[in-house]
Protein backbone atom coordinates (compact mmCIF):
# COMPACT_ATOMS: atom_id res chain seq x y z
CA UNK A 1 0.00 0.00 0.00
CA UNK A 2 1.43 3.32 -1.08
CA UNK A 3 0.57 6.86 -0.02
CA UNK A 4 2.13 10.32 -0.23
CA UNK A 5 2.99 12.81 2.52
CA UNK A 6 3.14 16.55 1.95
CA UNK A 7 4.66 18.57 4.83
CA UNK A 8 3.81 21.99 6.34
CA UNK A 9 2.54 24.39 3.65
CA UNK A 10 2.36 27.81 5.39
CA UNK A 11 0.08 29.39 2.79
CA UNK A 12 -0.86 33.06 3.07
CA UNK A 13 -3.76 34.83 1.41
CA UNK A 14 -2.74 34.51 -2.25
CA UNK A 15 -0.55 35.67 -3.84
CA UNK A 16 1.38 36.77 -0.75
CA UNK A 17 4.89 35.37 -0.35
CA UNK A 18 6.40 34.24 2.94
CA UNK A 19 9.99 34.99 3.95
CA UNK A 20 10.82 35.81 0.33
CA UNK A 21 9.51 32.48 -0.98
CA UNK A 22 6.33 31.57 -2.87
CA UNK A 23 4.40 28.84 -1.03
CA UNK A 24 1.84 28.53 -3.83
CA UNK A 25 4.45 27.94 -6.53
CA UNK A 26 5.96 25.24 -4.33
CA UNK A 27 2.60 23.65 -3.55
CA UNK A 28 1.62 23.60 -7.22
CA UNK A 29 4.96 22.03 -8.17
CA UNK A 30 4.66 19.48 -5.37
CA UNK A 31 1.12 18.39 -6.18
CA UNK A 32 1.87 18.21 -9.88
CA UNK A 33 5.02 16.12 -9.25
CA UNK A 34 3.11 13.68 -7.05
CA UNK A 35 0.31 13.42 -9.63
CA UNK A 36 2.83 12.77 -12.42
CA UNK A 37 5.09 10.25 -10.69
CA UNK A 38 2.96 8.75 -7.92
CA UNK A 39 -0.55 8.66 -9.30
CA UNK A 40 -0.64 5.03 -8.13
CA UNK A 41 -0.63 6.16 -4.49
CA UNK A 42 -3.90 5.45 -2.70
CA UNK A 43 -4.09 8.83 -1.02
CA UNK A 44 -2.13 11.84 0.20
CA UNK A 45 -1.89 13.45 3.63
CA UNK A 46 -0.92 17.08 4.27
CA UNK A 47 0.60 17.30 7.74
CA UNK A 48 -0.70 20.64 9.08
CA UNK A 49 0.36 24.28 9.12
CA UNK A 50 -1.74 24.57 6.01
CA UNK A 51 -2.11 28.33 6.48
CA UNK A 52 0.62 30.41 8.10
CA UNK A 53 -1.87 32.82 9.72
CA UNK A 54 -4.98 30.65 9.62
CA UNK A 55 -6.55 32.86 6.95
CA UNK A 56 -9.79 31.81 5.25
CA UNK A 57 -8.49 32.88 1.84
CA UNK A 58 -5.48 30.59 2.24
CA UNK A 59 -7.72 27.60 3.03
CA UNK A 60 -9.96 28.46 0.08
CA UNK A 61 -6.94 28.64 -2.23
CA UNK A 62 -5.80 25.23 -0.98
CA UNK A 63 -9.28 23.81 -1.53
CA UNK A 64 -9.31 25.04 -5.14
CA UNK A 65 -5.98 23.34 -5.79
CA UNK A 66 -7.07 20.05 -4.25
CA UNK A 67 -10.14 19.98 -6.51
CA UNK A 68 -7.76 19.37 -9.41
CA UNK A 69 -5.47 16.97 -7.54
CA UNK A 70 -6.23 13.34 -8.45
CA UNK A 71 -5.43 11.76 -5.04
CA UNK A 72 -7.87 11.74 -2.17
CA UNK A 73 -6.23 14.00 0.43
CA UNK A 74 -6.46 14.01 4.22
CA UNK A 75 -5.81 17.37 5.82
CA UNK A 76 -4.33 17.84 9.28
CA UNK A 77 -3.93 21.08 11.21
CA UNK A 78 -0.85 22.53 12.92
CA UNK A 79 -0.12 25.34 15.35
CA UNK A 80 -0.27 27.97 12.58
CA UNK A 81 -3.79 26.90 11.64
CA UNK A 82 -7.06 28.19 13.00
CA UNK A 83 -9.31 25.18 13.63
CA UNK A 84 -12.63 27.04 13.27
CA UNK A 85 -11.57 28.82 10.08
CA UNK A 86 -10.22 25.58 8.66
CA UNK A 87 -13.51 23.83 9.41
CA UNK A 88 -15.41 26.70 7.82
CA UNK A 89 -13.43 26.25 4.60
CA UNK A 90 -13.60 22.44 4.75
CA UNK A 91 -16.98 21.69 6.36
CA UNK A 92 -16.95 18.09 5.13
CA UNK A 93 -13.61 17.24 6.75
CA UNK A 94 -14.30 14.62 9.45
CA UNK A 95 -13.89 15.59 13.11
CA UNK A 96 -14.25 13.75 16.39
CA UNK A 97 -17.23 14.12 18.74
CA UNK A 98 -15.58 17.11 20.44
CA UNK A 99 -14.88 18.90 17.16
CA UNK A 100 -11.16 18.15 16.96
CA UNK A 101 -9.70 17.36 13.53
CA UNK A 102 -9.04 13.74 14.41
CA UNK A 103 -9.65 11.14 11.74
CA UNK A 104 -9.46 7.36 11.63
CA UNK A 105 -8.88 5.63 8.33
CA UNK A 106 -8.76 1.89 7.75
CA UNK A 107 -6.98 0.49 4.73
CA UNK A 108 -5.08 -2.62 3.61
CA UNK A 109 -2.02 -1.66 5.70
CA UNK A 110 -3.90 -1.26 8.98
CA UNK A 111 -5.41 1.63 10.92
CA UNK A 112 -4.25 5.19 10.24
CA UNK A 113 -4.95 7.76 12.97
CA UNK A 114 -4.57 11.46 12.20
CA UNK A 115 -4.30 13.42 15.46
CA UNK A 116 -5.11 17.04 16.29
CA UNK A 117 -2.39 18.44 18.58
CA UNK A 118 -3.32 22.11 18.20
CA UNK A 119 -4.07 24.52 21.05
CA UNK A 120 -4.82 28.17 20.27
CA UNK A 121 -2.29 30.60 21.68
CA UNK A 122 0.73 28.31 21.78
CA UNK A 123 3.18 27.01 19.18
CA UNK A 124 3.67 23.89 21.30
CA UNK A 125 1.45 20.84 20.95
CA UNK A 126 -1.31 19.94 23.38
CA UNK A 127 -3.15 16.64 23.64
CA UNK A 128 -5.91 17.08 26.19
CA UNK A 129 -7.94 14.50 28.12
CA UNK A 130 -10.68 14.45 25.51
CA UNK A 131 -8.25 13.77 22.67
CA UNK A 132 -6.40 11.19 24.73
CA UNK A 133 -9.67 9.37 25.33
CA UNK A 134 -10.31 9.31 21.56
CA UNK A 135 -6.83 7.89 20.93
CA UNK A 136 -7.17 5.30 23.68
CA UNK A 137 -10.48 4.11 22.21
CA UNK A 138 -9.17 3.98 18.66
CA UNK A 139 -6.03 2.05 19.66
CA UNK A 140 -8.10 -0.42 21.65
CA UNK A 141 -10.50 -0.88 18.74
CA UNK A 142 -7.59 -1.54 16.36
CA UNK A 143 -6.70 -4.66 18.34
CA UNK A 144 -3.97 -6.64 16.59
CA UNK A 145 -4.00 -4.56 13.41
CA UNK A 146 -0.95 -2.31 12.94
CA UNK A 147 -1.57 1.35 13.67
CA UNK A 148 0.16 4.31 12.00
CA UNK A 149 0.05 7.64 13.84
CA UNK A 150 0.16 11.03 12.14
CA UNK A 151 0.62 14.08 14.35
CA UNK A 152 1.84 17.61 13.71
CA UNK A 153 3.88 17.97 16.93
CA UNK A 154 6.43 15.29 17.89
CA UNK A 155 6.15 13.95 21.46
CA UNK A 156 9.97 13.89 21.77
CA UNK A 157 13.07 16.06 21.35
CA UNK A 158 14.92 16.10 18.03
CA UNK A 159 18.10 17.73 19.39
CA UNK A 160 17.30 21.15 17.89
CA UNK A 161 16.77 23.47 20.89
CA UNK A 162 14.44 25.94 19.15
CA UNK A 163 12.11 23.08 18.17
CA UNK A 164 12.41 21.06 21.35
CA UNK A 165 10.81 23.96 23.24
CA UNK A 166 7.64 23.67 21.16
CA UNK A 167 7.14 19.89 20.93
CA UNK A 168 4.06 18.12 22.35
CA UNK A 169 3.55 19.04 25.99
CA UNK A 170 2.86 16.35 28.62
CA UNK A 171 4.49 13.80 26.36
CA UNK A 172 4.64 11.24 29.19
CA UNK A 173 0.86 10.86 29.21
CA UNK A 174 0.86 10.45 25.45
CA UNK A 175 3.63 7.87 25.60
CA UNK A 176 1.75 5.87 28.21
CA UNK A 177 -1.23 5.51 25.87
CA UNK A 178 0.90 4.49 22.90
CA UNK A 179 3.04 2.10 24.90
CA UNK A 180 0.00 0.59 26.60
CA UNK A 181 -1.67 -0.21 23.28
CA UNK A 182 1.41 -1.91 21.83
CA UNK A 183 0.08 -1.85 18.26
CA UNK A 184 1.59 1.36 16.86
CA UNK A 185 4.04 0.55 14.06
CA UNK A 186 5.21 3.98 12.88
CA UNK A 187 4.79 7.66 13.76
CA UNK A 188 4.83 10.39 11.13
CA UNK A 189 5.23 13.96 12.38
CA UNK A 190 5.71 17.48 10.99
CA UNK A 191 6.28 20.90 12.63
CA UNK A 192 10.08 20.68 12.71
CA UNK A 193 10.72 21.79 9.10
CA UNK A 194 13.61 19.36 8.87
CA UNK A 195 14.25 15.85 7.50
CA UNK A 196 14.72 13.76 10.63
CA UNK A 197 14.43 10.12 11.62
CA UNK A 198 13.96 9.14 15.25
CA UNK A 199 13.51 5.88 17.11
CA UNK A 200 11.47 6.89 20.15
CA UNK A 201 11.34 4.24 22.88
CA UNK A 202 11.57 1.64 20.11
CA UNK A 203 8.97 3.29 17.84
CA UNK A 204 10.33 4.54 14.48
CA UNK A 205 9.32 8.07 13.52
CA UNK A 206 10.16 10.50 10.73
CA UNK A 207 9.55 14.03 9.49
CA UNK A 208 10.14 16.06 6.35
CA UNK A 209 11.39 19.53 5.51
CA UNK A 210 8.49 21.97 5.08
CA UNK A 211 7.34 23.10 1.67
CA UNK A 212 8.20 26.79 2.07
CA UNK A 213 10.94 27.52 4.63
CA UNK A 214 13.10 25.34 6.87
CA UNK A 215 14.57 25.52 10.36
CA UNK A 216 18.37 25.38 10.08
CA UNK A 217 20.00 22.53 11.98
CA UNK A 218 22.38 25.06 13.55
CA UNK A 219 20.69 28.36 14.09
CA UNK A 220 23.98 30.26 13.65
CA UNK A 221 24.53 28.71 10.20
CA UNK A 222 22.35 31.34 8.48
CA UNK A 223 21.68 34.96 9.39
CA UNK A 224 17.88 34.49 9.58
CA UNK A 225 15.80 32.32 11.91
CA UNK A 226 14.51 30.27 8.99
CA UNK A 227 16.43 28.99 5.97
CA UNK A 228 15.79 28.23 2.31
CA UNK A 229 16.72 24.56 1.89
CA UNK A 230 15.23 22.08 -0.59
CA UNK A 231 11.62 21.10 0.17
CA UNK A 232 10.57 17.46 -0.12
CA UNK A 233 7.53 15.24 -0.16
CA UNK A 234 7.55 11.56 0.80
CA UNK A 235 6.05 8.45 -0.67
CA UNK A 236 5.53 5.60 1.76
CA UNK A 237 5.25 1.95 0.77
CA UNK A 238 3.92 -0.35 3.47
CA UNK A 239 4.34 -4.08 3.10
CA UNK A 240 3.82 -6.88 5.58
CA UNK A 241 7.43 -6.60 6.76
CA UNK A 242 8.54 -3.03 5.95
CA UNK A 243 7.61 0.63 6.17
CA UNK A 244 9.60 2.29 3.36
CA UNK A 245 9.76 6.08 3.35
CA UNK A 246 11.29 7.68 0.25
CA UNK A 247 11.61 11.46 0.14
CA UNK A 248 12.04 13.48 -3.04
CA UNK A 249 13.62 16.94 -3.47
CA UNK A 250 11.27 17.59 -6.37
CA UNK A 251 12.36 21.20 -7.00
CA UNK A 252 16.05 20.34 -7.13
CA UNK A 253 15.93 17.23 -9.30
CA UNK A 254 18.13 17.67 -12.38
CA UNK A 255 19.87 15.39 -14.84
CA UNK A 256 23.60 14.82 -14.43
CA UNK A 257 26.14 15.47 -17.17
CA UNK A 258 26.26 11.97 -18.67
CA UNK A 259 24.76 10.04 -21.61
CA UNK A 260 20.94 10.13 -21.68
CA UNK A 261 19.06 7.28 -20.01
CA UNK A 262 17.79 5.08 -22.87
CA UNK A 263 16.07 2.43 -20.77
FE1 LIG B 1 5.25 24.60 10.22
Layout of helices and strands:
Layout: E1 2-6, H1 23-37, E2 43-46, H2 56-67, E3 73-75, H3 83-89, E4 103-107, E5 110-114, H4 129-142, E6 147-151, H5 161-164, H6 171-181, E7 184-189, E8 196-200, E9 203-207, E10 233-238, E11 243-248
Helix pairs in contact: 2-3, 4-6
3D structure, described in words:
The chain has 263 residues and is of the alpha/beta class. It has one domain: Metallo-dependent phosphatases (Purple Acid Phosphatase, chain A, domain 2). Helices cover 24% and strands 21% of the residues. Helix 2 crosses helix 3. The radius of gyration is 18 Å and the shape is globular. The two termini are 26 Å apart. The mean pLDDT is 96. Bound molecules: fe (ii) ion. Residues 8, 10, 49, 78, 80, 191, 193, 210 line the site of fe (ii) ion.
Largest sheet descriptor: 6 strands, mixed
Q: What is the CA-atom radius of gyration, in angstroms? A: 18 Å
Helical percent range? 10-25%
Strand content: 15-25%
Keywords:
263 residues, alpha/beta, Purple Acid Phosphatase, chain A, domain 2, 6-stranded mixed beta sheet, 5-stranded mixed beta sheet, 6 helices, binds fe (ii) ion
Question: How would you summarize this macromolecular structure in one to three sentences?
Answer:
The protein is α/β, with parallel strands linked by helices and 263 residues long.
